[in-house]
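We examine the record.

___
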Amino acid sequence: MGIRNKGMEKEVKSGFRKSPEMVVMISQILHANLFQILMAKYHHPGGRVSGSFRIKPSEKPPVLTQPPAAAHRVPSQLSLQLMGPKKGGKAAVPAKKKTEKVVNPLFEKRPKQFGIGGALPPKKDLTRFVKWPHVVRIQRKRRILRQRLKVPPALNQFTKTLDKNLATNLFKMLLKYRPEDKAAKKERLLKRAQAEAEGKTAESKKPIVVKYGLNHITYLIEQNKAQLVVIAHDVDPIELVVWLPALCRKMEVPYAIVKGKSRLGAIVHKKTATALCLTSVKNEDKLEFSKIVEAVKANFNDKYDEYRKRWGGGIMGSKSQAKTKAKEKLIAKEAAQRMS
C-alpha cells in the first residue's frame, strides 16, 4: 500500500495553512481514494497494486456499499482535534491549575506545640466539671424538688409574680420614696442640733418614705394604714410570709408578689427585705399610683380564690414522662383490642 502523492501532500500543507476546513475536506478525499483501492483489490484477486494504480477501462469501478465518510477507519489525531467532541459525549474538562499561595517571607508560620513545656492549651468550658459550693448545690436540688413534688396552693401562689413591665413601674415608684441612709440621717440630725443650739425651731414634718420590716408592715396592715404591700417571692423560710397574702385580702389591702428579695432590700439600703409597704404618696404621684394599685388588685386580690385552689409541682423529668407516655399508649392499645 505504498501509495504516495507528493502533489497531494503539498495541497494538504498549503490547505492547513489556509484554513482547517480545507484540511478536513482533503483528508476525506484521501480516505475515499484509499477505500476504493482496497475494494478494487478485494473484488479483483489477480490485481496488484503498484506505484501507479489504474483501473482497466473494460472493468467497472467497484460499487461502494458505504459512503467513504462512513468507512471503518481509525481517525487520525489531527482529524479528532478538528472534528471536536462527539454529540452526546462529555467534553474533556481541562485540568484546574493549582493557585500557589503567596508566602510572605517576613511572616514565618510557627505552629503551636501543646506538649509539656510548650504553649498553653486553648480555654474550654469546664462548667460541667466544676465542683459547685454546697449552698449552690442545695439551691439547685431544692428547685428540682419543687418541680417534682406536689406543692400546696399556699406555697404555689408565690410562683405567680408580677409581670416585667408593671414591676418596672412599681420599682420606679418605690425608688422615689427611699428612706434616708446613715449619711443623710447623720446630716439631718446635725442640722437639727445646730438649729436648736441657735434657738431656732427645727422642721418636724415627717417625710413620706417606704416602710419595711415584717412586724412593722403587719402592724400597718392590721391598722388599715397600708395602701400597697409588696412581698418577695423567694423568702427563706417561706413560712415567714406565707400568711401575709391572706391577711392583706382580709383587710382589703392591695398586695403584689415580685421577684427578688434583694431588689426590695436595695430600695431600703439593706441586703434583703421580705416585704415593703407604702402608706401614702405625694400629690404629683397619685394618678400613677392609682393605676398601679388597680393593676395589682386585678392580678392578685381578685384572683385569690383561683390561686387558693391551684396546686403546683408534679412536673417530672424527661425520662419519667417518656415512660408514662409509653404506658398510656400500651393501655390504650389493649383497650382498643378488647373493644374490637
Q: What stands out?
A: The first helix runs from residue 6 to 18. The first strand starts at residue 150 and ends at 151.
